[in-house]
Amino acid sequence: MSSSDLDVLLDMGFDKERAELAVKKSGGLQGALEWLEQNQDKPLDEIKAEEASKVENIASASGQAGEIASSWVCNECGKKFRSMTQVQFHGEKSGHSDFAESTEEIAPLTEEEKKAKLEELRAKLAEKRAGGSEQDKLDKKKNDEIRRKSTKETQDIKEDLEKKERLKEAAAKKREKQAEVEAKERIRRKIQADKEERRLKAEKEKAQREGRAPPAAPAETGPTTSGSVASKPASAYTETRLRLQTPNGNIQKSFPVETTLFEVAHAVQEESGLSVESFTQTFPKKVFSDVDFGSNLKELGLIPSASLIVR
């Protein structure tokens, strides 16, 4: 083991036990760096167990040579190695398994060659780290884009829900106001009927005192049966038929007259996928915005049928 190679690895921040094993297995600084990179995610116990097994397999497969082997050669790629640890490292890295002993000695690297190899390895390591940093930046940018998109979609859903809630509140207030108007009208009619009843009673009592016949009660007006049948009044309709013109085609549907314009917009959205902002009546020309969505079809005069353009 070269203490200078080990010191270089320790200076680069590698764990001492793992660095010692890397130098022992590879026989040089370049091989040690490559081995550390290849096995950085493996536990030391697993690496040692694999080491023992592979050394035993290679030793049992080697032939009995008459001469002392000075090196090893890979018959698959032709590379030569000084030690069994280098053979094992090459086999792990390349997947080659056909090795043979050789009597040829391999000259060790000079100090200049070692320095050049070290600079080359440092440059490769820095390049790899820089590449990893660039990938981290790309991953972060991608995650930020996904997060921004998710935030925008969530905000759009929230705004849509808030809009629907406002429309529901407007429709409820409209119905409350209409109910209040109708209640006041009933009270006014009741007061008027009471006044008329008191007037008739007073006239009848006066006529009795004066000895004359009481005045005749006014006849109640009602529908006549003579002549042609009058057209059906608006109040008699229970549903209306709408022809809705959308960019995706026409929709024809019947709705109860009490259906609000908001509910019609919701039905259009469910059927065509369009988000409705307003309806336009062609004749007579009239635009129904979201302010009118709380009113029902009867209140808006869209009975017994109507044609609306969806915006």
Task: Please give the count of helices.
Answer: 7
Show unreliable segments.
Answer: 220-230
Strand content: 5-15%
Global outline: rod-shaped
Biggest sheet: strand arrangement: 5-4-8-6-7
Helix-residue proportion: 40-55%
Description:
By secondary structure, the protein is an alpha+beta fold. The protein is built from seven helices and eight strands, in the order ααααββαβαββαβββ. Helix content is 55%, strand content 12%. The chain starts with a helix and ends with a strand. A hairpin with a 5-residue loop joins β1 (71-74) and β2. The chain has a five-stranded mixed sheet with strand order 5-4-8-6-7, covered by helices on one side. Strands 2-1-3 form a three-stranded antiparallel sheet.
